[in-house]
Amino acid sequence: MASSVNGFVNILESYRGRDKVVRTLCYGSQLAGGVLCQKASGRSELGKSLLVFSAQLSQCRTVLRLFDDLSMYAYSRDYGLGAKDEDSALRCMSVLNNLADQLYYPCEHLAWAADAKVISTQSGKWWTLSTALWGISLLLGIMRSLRTIVLFKRKLKQRERDRCVGSSEAPNGMENQQQLCSEVFSILSSMSDFANAVNWMPPGFLWAGKFPDWLVGLLGTTSSLISLYQMCAGGSGGSV
User: What Pfam family is a match for this entry (predicted)?
Assistant: First the structure.
């Protein structure tokens, strides 16, 4: 029990860990509030309060992301064009992914500043552009995970062939299973977030605006729990 509490405290003491916890609470509150409001035909005071609480947490995360540009830039700079021995398709998708993420932040900052009356411009176009960039980043992440799984399976088959011809190297079953599960979880997380990203685009674009609050909350909670699990397990899941 004490170790679990200490582990949770350690997560809260880091910026990324706290953001993931707040994100989970944000979408979880939206899920619960949406369900209560739908059951009571919008007359549930508790449901409305949970939706307001969710909106406040979302606003909190938006403000905190005002300081994420430099860390994203440092990550993109360190990655550069990727290692030369890395698969070329993965390198290309990773570079484009980093570019979309880098552009996302200033667009969201401008949208927030417009809503806060810090600058005089319409926020709608900037929210749309930032959401579109987020969706592109998620799609690239899904494609990258799928490519990683394909390459990983090829490597496993090659190791199996090498072992059959007398090589002493044998694949680590537990490690292989964990790596595959991590990529599958990343795909599920990104697909959940992508569904919400489309929902927040302007009306008329695919299923934009058609999700009820509880469905947005369910998809976001699913993605958040996966991301939180990957962080606790040492993975690299991350979502806006």
Answer: PEX11
For residue 208, give the DSSP letter: T
Q: Are 232 and 11 in contact (CB under 8 A)?
A: yes
Burial 138-169 (b: 16+ CB within 10 A, else e): bbbbbbbbebbbeeeeeeeeebeeeeeeeeee
pTM value > 0.85: yes
pLDDT tens profile 149-177 = 999 888 888 877 777 776 555 556 566 77
Three-state SS string across 81-139, please? Answer: CCCCCCCHHHHHHHHHHHHHHHHHHHHHHHHHHHHCCCCCCCCHHHHHHHHHHHHHHHH
Q: Quick one: how many helices (H) and strands (E) in the chain?
A: 8, 0
Contact present, 66 and 109 (Cβ < 8 Å):
yes
* Token reading at 145: 């995970």
Q: Of 133, 95, 96, nearest to 111 (Cα)?
A: 133
